[in-house]
Amino acid sequence: MEATKKHFFSDMSVMLERSMRHIFRSMDTIVTVCITPIAMMLLFVYVFGGAIQAGTDSYVNYLLPGILLIAIASGIAYTSYRLFLDVQKGIIERFHTMPISRSTILWGHALTSLVSNAISVVVIILVALIMGFRSSAGILPWLAVAGILMLFTLALTWVAVIAGLSAKSVDGASAFSYPIIFLPFISSAFVPTESMPTVVRVFAENQPVTAIVEALRALLSDQPVGNDIWVALAWCVGILLVAYFFAMRVYKKRV
């Protein structure tokens, strides 16, 4: 058992290193992921911010959690794209001829997604600081924020793995991310849900993004989080487990 674990982790480190080399050789992927969320943040803060009643003096503080989720939703599309290319080029089949743990091929892509999205999140937070974002939170709330964002990234990454293994074309491999990117717009990420029509408000208040955004916002402002953090964690863990299960099933059938 111990030898199997060592074999698994050594194989996974090799796959992670391989995927990270692709990231650092084409840093434009991270730049592309950052550009749209930063542009949206600039637009909403400096153009629409004065007209939006968010109940806070600093709209960038209110906006940032939703922008981070949009950036992550955009970033996972590249995971699906890279995995699709590995399948189409027969690279995964080649790996299967080697004495390696097969699941580490997918975990290499998943951990690479975690690292690359973490870089994007840090860049966006730095831009937000320049724009006036300030947080009174201590170390523990920031660690909680990092933990929620990591769980959210992993959950969506395994959804991306399903798309990458199932897609018939390059466009299809990344198209799944568009509805996910759109979800923050129908949530409390940009405006309070109280201002929405009844039907839209009911949907917005009961979808995962709102709970995650509210939890992040409370943590960053050092306010009581309440049940939002447990709802957010339940959504993230639930999506992660279901997506991982179906990703492995698709993987076995496809390869």
Briefly say what this structure is.
Helices cover 77% and strands 0% of the residues. The chain has helices at 2-25, 28-48, 59-88, 91-96, 103-130, 139-166, 170-175, 177-182, 198-205, 208-220, 228-254. The chain is elongated and about 60 Å long.
What does this structure look like?
The protein is mainly α and 255 residues long. The chain has one domain. 77% of the residues lie in helices and 0% in strands. It contains eleven helices and no strands. Helix 6 runs antiparallel to helix 10.
SSE series: HHHHHHHHHHH
Class per helix and strand makeup: mainly alpha
Major sheet attributes: none
Beta-strand content estimate: under 5%
Number of domains: 1
Q: Cα-atom Rg, whole angstroms?
A: 19 Å
Net shape: elongated
Count of individual helical segments: 11
Average pLDDT score: 84
Instruction: Give the beta-strand count.
Output: 0
Helix proportion: over 70%
The span between the termini is 26 Å
Give start-end ranges of low-pLDDT stretches: none
